[in-house]
Amino acid sequence: VDTTAYMGAQAVCGPACIAHVRFAFPTWRRRRVGPVCRHKERPQSLKAVENMSVLRRCREVAARERTGTTPTAPVCSLTDGEAPHRFLGEWLFVASILQCERAISGRVYIVKNGELVYLAEGCDLIGRGVGRWVVEGTAVALELDIFQYAATCTEHTHAEPHRFMGVARLPEAKAPDRWAGEWHFYPAHMAPPRLVGRFEASRRNAPQALLPRRSAADDDVPPSARRTVMAKLEGSAEPFPMAAPVWHPHLVSGVADVHCVRRWLEPQQATDMEEMILKRCEFETIATRATAEYGLGGRCPCGRSLLREPLPDWLEPVITALHNLGVFHPVLFPANSVRINSYAPGQGIHPHSDGPIYFPRVAIVSLGAPCLFNFFARPEDGVDGEEARSLQWDKKHEVPVSPEVLPGTEPVTSLILEPGSLLIFAGDAFIRHTHGIAAVLEDAIGLRVHNAKELGFFEGDTLKRRRRVSLTVRHVLPRCECSS
Fold first, then answer.
1. Is 274 helix (H, G, I), strand (E, B) or coil?
2. Which of 317, 269, 237, 246 shows the shortest CA–CA distance to 9?
3. Most CB atoms within 10 A, among 161, 247, 248, 340?
């Protein structure tokens, strides 16, 4: 299913960053939240990170750079004069952010084509990043989008990666195993970067210990060179996927961070997909609906996290299309879980929130008959106690345990979900609102139905239910030390 054409979007590598969000620091600089898992078996969930093709490619390039072997095919469009040989390959990398000396600590892989990859190393940190770099004279600027959190923390993660920029001199011939420079943070979309600390990179076999310097005047780039190389990097910046203008017409009023795309699938595509699902899925019939889960292999033995299983091949086109649109990032937070629900007339799903076990973004593809989808505001203390119920299941309503919506509560906003439509909600809508579908034979159209007029409905109209099928696509987060 090639869905990228319906949004007119290109595949985007660099995801957005947002302001005023938490960033996970290493354990020795941060208060531990919750009990510590001591189960030693490494689950499959994080193993997929080390098998990513981009990371494998960077390791291969790093090995070639160290051994001096020649690749069988060109790996870059830059000449060695523009990108000195000693700058490329694998580096140990640390960076400070304000008062935290090693807020970022791990490995960076730099390749000739202008890309780089970051993988965190820490006792309970899960972190990875992708970015790009440019060189101007003897100065280099690198940009990294980093998604990082503490595995044992049960709070929600930040909804987008954080974007950083490093500016430094290229490694000198007399000291090729170390280079360092300034570390900047982008506080908001399109806002200028702010200096928040320093970074240092060192070869793994460097003789001296890797310790970030508090003051390193010798490593600083002259002001004119700094401005030039930073402007060169910022001038080639890609727009953030979910903040791109192509998404603006699909914003939903009433709740922040909600987008709805009509006819994401053409009618025939939606029909074909529904028929394929009904043939392939082995549904489990529960009290409120029929359901099938793909991508999850049950709980980790420690009980604090969920394990991964590969998604079936027939779901890959949908996953790839969502990655290409920037809804999920294929490296930082790839879509790895799909729940397929089938609703008969009179069935629905109780208002609930998905909890911090998931990356705070969900994409729902609707098939079959239309229905009314509702968002409700959570109680003021609804986010409190998230740790206690992060993996609890409401057996009565067959949903994750969530703050109860009182009878008679009106939705903050509602949407008519057509067959072939794509609903995406994240951030505030994911964390501070519950969502659900009423268990009725027909939906009553009220004043707060966002797209009622667009679809030809008016207040007081009814929408008769028929069978509806939906695909709920998410990214499951490792949430225990077994995974880190």
1. helix
2. 246
3. 161
Residue 148 is encoded by which pair of tokens?
């990082």
| Residue 257 near residue 251 (C-beta atoms within 8 A) | no
Strand partners, 135: 140
The two tokens of residue 355 are 């909890």
Q: Which distant-in-sequence residues (6+ apart) come within 8 Å of 280 by Cβ?
A: 312, 314
Alpha helices in 207-349 (DSSP H): 223-235, 267-280, 316-324
Tell the residue number behind the tokens 């029909």, with chain if given.
Answer: 271
Residues 6+ apart with CB under 8 A from 264: 3, 6, 7, 365, 420, 421, 422
Determine contact, residues 359/333, Cβ cutoff 8 Å.
yes
Query: Where does the pLDDT of residue 484 fall: very low under 50, low under 70, confident under 90, or very high at 90 and above?
Result: low
**What pTM was estimated for this model as a whole?**
0.80
How does DSSP classify residue 190?
Answer: T
Residue predicted with more confidence, 17 or 290: 290
Cα gap 300→304, rounded to integer Å = 7
For tokens 């990214």, the residue is 475
Cα-based angle 47, 49, 51 (whole degrees, multiple of 5) = 75
For the chain, the residue count is 484
CA angle 437, 443, 447 (to 5 degrees): 95
Tokens of 418: 């057509």
Res. 483 pLDDT band, cuts 50 70 90: low
Non-local CB neighbours of 316 within 8 Å, separated by 6+ positions: none
Please state the separation of Cα 393 from the chain's center in Å.
24
Let me know if 303 is exposed, middle or buried by CB neighbors in 10 A (0-12, 13-18, 19+).
Answer: exposed
- The 3-state secondary structure of 70-135, one letter per residue: CCCCCCCCCCCCCCCHHHCEEEEEEEEECCEEEEEEEEEEECCCCEEEEEECCCCEEEEEEEEEEE
Identify whether the C-beta of residue 78 lies closer than 8 Å to the C-beta of residue 113: yes
